[in-house]
Amino acid sequence: NAGVMQNPRHLVRRRGQEARLRCSPMKGHSHVYWYRQLPEEGLKFMVYLQKENIIDESGMPKERFSAEFPKEGPSILRIQQVVRGDSAAYFCASSPPPSNTEAFFGQGTRLTVV
Amino acid sequence: AQSVTQLDSQVPVFEEAPVELRCNYSSSVSVYLFWYVQYPNQGLQLLLKYLSGSTLVKGINGFEAEFNKSQTSFHLRKPSVHISDTAEYFCAVSENTGFQKLVFGTGTRLLVSP
């Protein structure tokens, strides 16, 4: 059973470009969470999604950031018009239905904005 | 809302010595508690979790933690560390209504030297 798969592992974008980060949850997991880790900081919750639904986006910046988890395919975190401050590690986690008490993390995508 | 405080940003220790990494939390509701480890350029791996029951929780790699409700603490301990334990350790909480989202501390860097 493969773990949570994130790609790419490293992504370099110029200011103003778009960044697309992908997350394939573990088999059988229908819940996906995105977290952001800024340099020298802990992880901060961004968004919680189920298939085709955003459940909690209280940690998402109001502009330029969006997330989706379609019926088919991976979850996508999209950052439009990236700025230097978006440089961070973005981690995806997945879990079975909410009664479960553990999330499994991917290895992250390290975004560098130049 | 919950918050997590990890007072020690870095803990240096010699190999085979005991170690304690401190974690305090605040919450207006009952919580689940977690410790994760992050090796350089890797994702997060669950060390242990407290859901209910015995306040002493044993995890992987010889780590254990004790939940103290009156002091709102969940300190991580290991009686004898190895060089390979050098990593970043994160304490986290979530509401105990089923896994929703994690609130992380800022992390403690454990540095084990020979």
How does this model look, in words?
The complex is a heterodimer of chains A (114) and B (114). Chain A is mainly beta and 114 residues long. Chain A contains no helices and 11 strands. Chain A has strands at residues 5-7, 10-13, 19-24, 31-37, 43-50, 53-56, 65-68, 75-79, 88-95, 104-105, 109-113. In chain A, the strands form 2 sheets. In chain A, strands 2, 4, 5, 6, 9, 10 and 11 form a 7-stranded mixed β-sheet that branches. A 4-stranded antiparallel β-sheet of chain A has the order 1-3-8-7, with no helix packed on it. Chain B is mostly beta strands and 114 residues long. Chain B contains no helices and 12 strands. In chain B, the strands form 3 sheets. In chain B, strands 2, 5, 6, 10, 11 and 12 form a 6-stranded mixed β-sheet that branches. The model of chain B has no long low-confidence stretch (mean pLDDT 92). Chain A binds chain B through residues 4, 31, 33, 35, 41-45, 48, 56, 59, 91, 93, 95, 98-108, 110, and chain B through 4, 6, 32, 36, 41-46, 49, 51, 90, 98-107.
Low-confidence residue ranges of chain A: none
Coarse structural class of chain A? mainly beta
- Would you tell me the overall average pLDDT of chain A? 92
Number of E strands of chain A: 11
In percent, how much strand structure appears in the residues of chain B? over 45%
- Assembly level: heterodimer
Helical amount of chain A: under 10%
Main attributes of the structure:
heterodimer, A: about 110 residues, mainly beta, seven-stranded mixed beta sheet, four-stranded antiparallel beta sheet, 11 strands, B: about 110 residues, six-stranded mixed beta sheet, 12 strands, globular
Task: Write the topology of this structure.
The complex is a heterodimer of chains A (114) and B (114).
Chain A (H helix, E strand, L loop, with lengths): L4 E3 L2 E4 L5 E6 L6 E7 L5 E8 L2 E4 L8 E4 L6 E5 L8 E8 L8 E2 L3 E5 L1
Parallel strand pairs in A: 2-11
Antiparallel strand pairs in A: 1-3, 3-8, 4-5, 4-9, 5-6, 7-8, 9-10, 9-11
Chain B lengths: L2 E3 L4 E5 L4 E3 L2 E3 L4 E8 L5 E7 L5 E3 L5 E5 L4 E6 L8 E9 L7 E2 L3 E6 L1
Parallel strand pairs in B: 2-12
Antiparallel strand pairs in B: 1-4, 3-9, 5-6, 5-10, 7-8, 8-9, 10-11, 10-12
